[in-house]
Give the backbone structure.
Amino acid sequence: MLRRGTAAVAVAMLLCGAAPAWADDVRGGQRPVIKTLALTQAWRTSKGDGVTVAVLDSGVDPHHRDLAGSVRVGKDFTEGANPPGVAPSRLHGTYMASLIAGHGHGNGGNLGIIGVAPEADVLSVRVILEDEEPGFREFNSAERFEDVVAQGIRYAVDEGADVINMSISKELATREERAAIRYAISKGVVLVAAAGNDGDRKIDGDFAPYSYPAAFPGVVSVGATDRLLRRATFSNWNSSVLVAAPGVDIMGAGPGDEYWVGRGTSQATALVSGIAALIKAKYPGMSPPLVARALTAGATDRPPGGYDTGTGFGVVNAARALSEARKLAGYTETAAGDQAQDPAEPLAGGRTAPIEVIVRDDKRVTVYAAIAAAAAVGAFASLGVIFILVRRVRRAYSSQDA
């Protein structure tokens, strides 16, 4: 069992490839995601320029040629867990950062990984260790590392992040995390987190475990879909799930100019964070609830009835989300009901209703109950095994492609 949201990593087979499908085999492998998210259309409106996405993860390799120049290495909140002189692995974090803001390389950036928001910047904030790192056990047992995620959220906000990606998951919520999320939302920062990869675990037969920080109200909780855009079997299903994104066979970058293909709600979360970055770049003053509304209103492959616990309001679509954001850009949200709900407190019973937005003549939007939450107690949940197909970038690329 993994703790504090650390991702398990298993090396599979060498990525072999002949002639590229689009410019190279890596970009060709991204074609299904680019099509599903309607990125080609979305990029006519926004590519994320001017936006900073904080990646709270295991660290990001700033020298990968698909990310070079776009990454600022921030604070390492795991410092002291690994023995002195041990470099961080940065596997999972680099992978997520590339899905968000990879810009490719070569002539016109046509080789390598293209992220959802290729002109966005990444702030790397290290808040987890991966299970192969020697300090993994120390990190997950020492009390001094208990609140690293909360600290990372506050740090990212203070460093100017517009979006915070948290492809991490655990079952136990803390007061410090709750307060940090409240702080981020109050500063207009969009928080996106993984719903978790325990979809085969049922609680009373009714739902899969809640995961934090995804299940905190105000956080965009993301589930994963398979190739047919159905809920992936590993993806948690419960009333915290707001939207879903592709999470199977997702191409991404790894440290040292490597490339991976894997599965998980981690990858789905990074893709949604990229779309949030596109929205914030076009409409920088848009508040987190309205960004969430744009994501849900623009979703496709909606379940019967408009919502279910597996894929939320449906599969995100970048072009449609930007279109919905344009409609919402002139509005502000107001609290509803007899008592305004604290965005960092769960409703009675640990659940809330799906988002409902009412547009009023005074250009205000009333947002009812954002995202479900449940205080689950137990061991931290795994993000699930990421299957990695690794290969070094072929040196056969011509010099002009480098």
